[in-house]
Specification:
The chain is mainly α and 461 residues long. It folds into 2 domains: 5-268, 2-methylcitrate dehydratase PrpD, CATH 1.10.4100.10; 280-398, 60s Ribosomal Protein L30, Chain: A (2-Layer Sandwich). It has 23 helices and 4 strands. The protein has helices spanning 5-15, 25-44, 47-55, 65-69, 77-89, 105-119, 123-141, 147-150, 155-171, 176-186, 201-221, 237-241, 249-255, 265-268, 283-294, 311-316, 325-328, 332-341, 352-355, 358-364, 411-422, 428-438, 447-452; strands at 302-309, 367-371, 382-388, 393-398. A 4-stranded mixed sheet has the order 2-1-3-4. The protein is globular.
Length: 461
């Protein structure tokens, strides 16, 4: 048999060391890790994250940072990855990558944290495993995206199972043969229906694929067998999860563009941090609305707000009149109304106070959202037009959300976001110290020790 995509990826994962990473990759990974730790801490003490913790027998309100993040070494790593992955995605404040039409870090960091203590993982070990996991999930997404997402699959959960597996295999130092089997095991695990967006099961998807990654990698380490072409072969993952009946297995193998010697996706596509804790398809509209209002529009004088965005936004944003905070995160109408009325579209914008705010409600009823058919399905571009009671019209078009890879959020914004999130779970001093230590990720000799307070260079509780 010729070299399969699975084998090519497995050899890449097994052979890659920290010094092989592209020059800018450690900085990108470090930003992603810091951002994800912040949102995971906040997500661990409420909503789906707190539910997952209690289901695992933990009291999230009483747990320390190491326990909430899963690096304390207690319990089954697969179960730990599930609850930490769920927590990291619970607030929908975690990062994105267009390379897989999904959220990468919540599929990569939870399995790594769950295995870090047992693997004595350094910051460089973790950064390497994160980077190769990202490359794998992006590479396997390419031949069937964005059709896969458009058909109703949550790409974070489906492609994320492979990224989680590759990351875990790297941290466990599996050889190419075992990594190949691990990826094949992972091919039997992906799931995640977009119909569950707006509920606690959406973040659970990240937990489930994180668990799958740990399970697949540890089973492969211990000798489980699997088909060599479980992803790329007839009736394999690509065949089953590709909605295009016109594409054959050979077509998808031909479309598999991964080149271990070529540019990495972490460089060319990158990872986008979220500026707002809601569906990414709202972000350009939120930013555009805020910019128009900041130019001198009185929210009380708004007659209507017209929003035009892509088909992906139309599919994902299913709650024009949300009844819960989770539904509000998938409501263009609510997000735009908050941008018009509130000082910031922050975590509080998706809590009861904002949902019950008469000013937000009044503007939300005046938001008219429609799909712009000329835009590509997965475009994040939007156009916002605000018409005021005196007949004045102001319009703004925005192509990219704030915080994209090529134009990241400013350091002070990233720090403020981290502290805002982390302080929901830990005291301010601990949050500050976590931030300061994690920003030196490649220099950490033992990630679990640092987060658990066993690092001699910190006195984190």
């Amino acid at each position: 048999m010729d070299e399969t995509p699975e084998r090519r990826l497995a050899e890449f994962v097994a052979a890659t060391e920290y010094d092989d990473l592209p020059a800018d990759a450690p900085a990108t990974v470090t930003r992603a890790v810091v951002d994800t730790v912040g949102v995971a801490l906040a997500g661990a003490v409420e909503g789906a994250g707190a539910t997952a913790a209690r289901s695992a027998g933990l009291d999230p309100e009483a747990a320390d940072a190491a326990t909430l993040l899963g690096v304390d070494g207690d319990g089954d790593p697969a179960a730990t990855a599930l609850r930490v992955g769920t927590a990291a995605h619970a607030l929908d404040y975690d990062d994105l990558s267009w390379a897989l039409d999904g959220h990468p870090s919540v599929t990569l960091l939870p399995p790594l944290f769950a295995l870090a203590d047992g693997a004595d993982a350094s910051g460089r070990d973790l950064a390497t495993a994160f980077a190769v996991g990202f490359e794998v999930e992006c590479a396997l997404a390419g031949p069937i995206s964005p059709d896969h997402y458009e058909a109703g699959w949550h790409a974070t959960a489906t492609f994320g199972a492979f990224g989680a597996t590759a990351a875990a295999a790297s941290l466990l130092d599996l050889d190419a043969e075992a990594t190949e089997r691990a990826l094949a095991v992972a091919a039997s695990t992906p799931s995640g229906a977009k119909r569950n967006f707006g509920s606690m099961t959406k973040p659970l998807h990240a937990g489930l694929c994180s668990r799958s990654g740990v399970t697949a990698a540890t089973l492969a380490r211990d000798g489980i067998t699997a088909a060599r072409d479980a992803v790329s072969g007839d009736r394999g993952f690509w065949d089953l999860y590709d909605p295009d009946p016109g594409r054959t297995a050979a077509d998808r193998r031909d479309a598999f563009a991964f080149d271990p010697d070529g540019p990495w996706a972490v460089e060319t596509e990158g990872i986008h941090a979220k500026a707002y804790p809601c569906c990414y398809f709202t972000h350009t509209a939120v930013a555009a609305t805020a910019a128009i209002v900041d130019d001198g529009v009185d929210p009380e004088g708004i007659e209507r707000i017209e929003v035009r965005a892509a088909g992906g936004a139309g599919d994902a944003l299913a709650y024009p009149d949300p009844e819960t905070g989770l539904e509000a995160k998938f409501s263009m109408e609510h997000a735009v109304a908050c941008a018009a009325v509130r000082d910031r579209v922050d975590l509080a914008a998706f809590e009861a106070g904002a949902l019950e705010d008469p000013a937000v409600d009044a503007v939300r009823e005046r938001v008219e959202f429609a799909v712009e058919q000329s835009l590509p399905y997965d475009s994040h571009e939007s156009t916002v037009r605000i018409v005021t009671a005196d007949g004045t019209t102001r319009e703004r078009r925005r192509v990219d959300p704030p915080g994209v890879h090529d134009d990241p959020l400013p350091p002070e914004t990233r720090r403020r976001k981290f502290l805002e999130c982390a302080e929901r779970a830990v005291d301010p001093e601990t949050a500050e110290r976590l931030y300061d230590r994690l920003t030196d990720l490649p220099e950490l000799p033992d990630v679990a020790a640092t987060l658990a307070g066993r690092d001699s260079r910190t006195d984190l509780p």
